[in-house]
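Dear Dr. H.,

I hope your travels went smoothly. While you were away I took the liberty of generating a structure for the chain from your last submission, since the lab meeting agenda had it listed for discussion. I wanted you to have the full record in hand beforehand rather than looking at slides cold. The sequence, exactly as received, is reproduced here:
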Amino acid sequence: MKKLIIINGTMGVGKSAVCRQLLKILPPGVWLDGDWCWNMNPFVVSEENKAMVLDNICYLLKSFLNNTGYEYVIFCWVIHQEDIFNQLLMRLQGWEFELHKISLICSEQALAARLQYDVEAGIRNRDIIERSIPRLALYHSMDTKKIDVSDITAEQAAIEIKHLVRRN
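The corresponding predicted structure, in token form, is as follows:
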């Protein structure tokens, strides 16, 4: 049975880096980053755009789940509320898959250091630090498996996820 691996976490926690590594060690697989569906200029969060992004994500996930060439479908996105999980999973009803929901968490200090590095490298805007850190607490209460990435590399986190997914 196909495995849908949904990895969430606050901005800058390392979702993309972990998924990049996970894709390498879990073949045959495919990876979708929810941020790719928000890559627009200007970046506008409106009800119309939120609906469009969710439609596009679900279309792609269904296509990946339907494709016989993939066993592992990896999806990462911020997903800071259970309601977003529920909306997403409701739209995937009718597709057979084994679901793995994983939240990447870390200490405030580790997150601030990662985000500061990205700001200095010109990858992120300076306001990301004060927007991301308060969201950390949201992930602790979610119905997900937690992986603390404060002191481990993306590769180590990916290996831990691989073991979780293959164990079931």
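Two observations you may find useful: The beta strands are 3-8, 29-33, 72-77, 98-105, 145-148. The chain has a mean pLDDT of 96.

With kind regards,
E. W.
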